[in-house]
Design a protein that fits this description.
single chain; 89 residues; mainly alpha
Amino acid sequence: MSLKSSTEIKEIKDVQLVDDFLTQLQEMYIYLKCSQKQYYDPTKFCLAIKDPQNNPINVYVQEDAHEFLNTVFGKIEDYVKKQEKLADL
């Protein structure tokens, strides 16, 4: 899938993609790798990261980098564990 078609799909299904943390993480890395621009608007990525109460994180509250990375890596770990369980079925 080309980056252009990914953008077109994102516009059509914007609400579904915002809640998908891994999709937003992947989109951010693809954009940073493939884009000619030297910046990325992380709004959708930030909306996809949820706090323990399943609310988007508050970007106006300063958070320790270690705490943030623990949140990100924890979400990735949960996803991998879920995929392993699905593969075992």
